[in-house]
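RECORD TYPE: inverse folding
INPUT: structure tokens
STRUCTURE:
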């Protein structure tokens, strides 16, 4: 699997380096690269860790004692930020997450309607803490549970059904791209490769979330916008958080386009595939660090994370936009994040949609993004 992944990454890197105007994305000139970023990143990271120490509840959770997803995301972020699993804060956090493990292998609050989301994120936390293989069993059980949640033949959902291959919150009859992206992230972390049937099924659903009419997407929405970007879901009558067009199309937006692109990479879609190229072309026209294009400030920190995750996976070092202007996206995004950090070490989004008004949640996404831009300890 690792050899397959390396070949895939090299293929993406070669494609991106050789396509002028294709790999280059536009970044606002107001964001300047720092000539000494390492010390500032380390300082920002430590301030964020200190902030999260003050907001953790006695039993180990953050924000809510029943929100396994939020606590799991923060736990993962702290581990990626270099906090050791043996740290008392993380010992409490991991013990708290263990309390959500269910007999079916899932990791979720017993009455939760977010079983896929909570299990996927908790799996990522346990995988990040698995330095002594102490969580191997929990990770394997969670992996198998997630596969069972996925819409496929086991639920009598056939490949021609628009829901096929997708994942939703767990109590919904509608899968969506956000949950499917978390599913794929978790499966990849658990060692599932692109040849696995779950990955192959997932890319069927992901393709149907793209505004691109093709043999892979014959939904009613495919031709109405047809700009190569991605939206939330074609299932349940279709939905885009960015709204609909006059002709009933579903508008593309950046966070879902990066989520879709990253998901295709994980599922083994080739760099030369028209779906990948179309997504890149959309991103060329809509790149921004000031907002989540198509959504304004909503989901800004999630957007930063999906952007960084996708571009890092493709090993893209420099973007060149259509005009030929080049950008060091890592340095520019680092500067942007540092400029947004609050004096108390947290990050928070003034637009509260998707819980980014919660400084615990926004800070977790910021730390996860910094871990990609400048890994702790390197």
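DESIGNED SEQUENCE:
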């Amino acid at each position: 699997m690792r050899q397959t992944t390396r070949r895939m990454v090299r293929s993406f890197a070669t494609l991106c380096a050789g396509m002028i105007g294709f790999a280059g994305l536009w970044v606002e000139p107001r964001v300047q690269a720092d000539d000494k970023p390492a010390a500032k990143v380390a300082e920002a990271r430590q301030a964020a860790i200190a902030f999260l120490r003050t907001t953790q509840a006695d039993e180990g959770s953050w924000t809510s004692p029943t929100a396994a997803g939020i606590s799991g995301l923060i736990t993962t972020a702290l581990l990626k930020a270099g906090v050791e699993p043996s740290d008392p804060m993380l010992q409490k956090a991991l013990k708290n997450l263990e309390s959500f493990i269910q007999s079916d292998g899932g990791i979720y609050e017993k009455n939760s309607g977010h079983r896929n989301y909570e299990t996927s994120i908790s799996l990522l936390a346990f995988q990040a803490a698995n330095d002594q293989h102490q969580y191997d069993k929990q990770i394997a059980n969670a992996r198998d549970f997630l596969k069972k949640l996925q819409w496929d033949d086991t639920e009598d959902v056939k490949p021609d059904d628009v829901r096929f291959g997708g994942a939703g919150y767990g109590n919904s009859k509608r899968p969506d791209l956000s949950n499917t992206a978390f599913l794929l992230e978790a499966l990849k972390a658990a060692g599932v490769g692109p040849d696995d049937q779950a990955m192959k099924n997932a890319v069927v659903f992901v393709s149907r979330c793209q505004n691109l009419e093709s043999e892979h997407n014959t939904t009613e929405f495919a031709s109405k916008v047809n700009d190569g970007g991605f939206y939330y879901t074609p299932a349940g009558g279709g939905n885009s958080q960015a709204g609909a067009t006059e002709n009933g199309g579903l508008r593309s937006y950046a966070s879902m386009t990066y989520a879709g692109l990253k998901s295709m990479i994980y599922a083994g879609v080739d760099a030369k595939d028209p779906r990948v190229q179309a997504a890149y072309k959309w991103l060329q026209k809509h790149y921004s660090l000031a907002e989540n294009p198509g959504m304004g400030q909503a989901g800004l920190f999630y957007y930063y994370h999906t952007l960084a995750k996708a571009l890092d996976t493709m090993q893209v070092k420099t973007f060149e936009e259509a005009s030929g202007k080049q950008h060091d996206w890592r340095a520019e995004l680092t500067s942007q994040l540092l400029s947004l950090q609050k004096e108390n070490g947290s990050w928070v989004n003034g637009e509260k949609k998707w819980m980014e008004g919660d400084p615990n949640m926004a800070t977790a996404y910021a730390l996860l993004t910094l871990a990609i831009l400048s890994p702790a300890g390197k």
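NOTES: The first strand starts at residue 319 and ends at 320.
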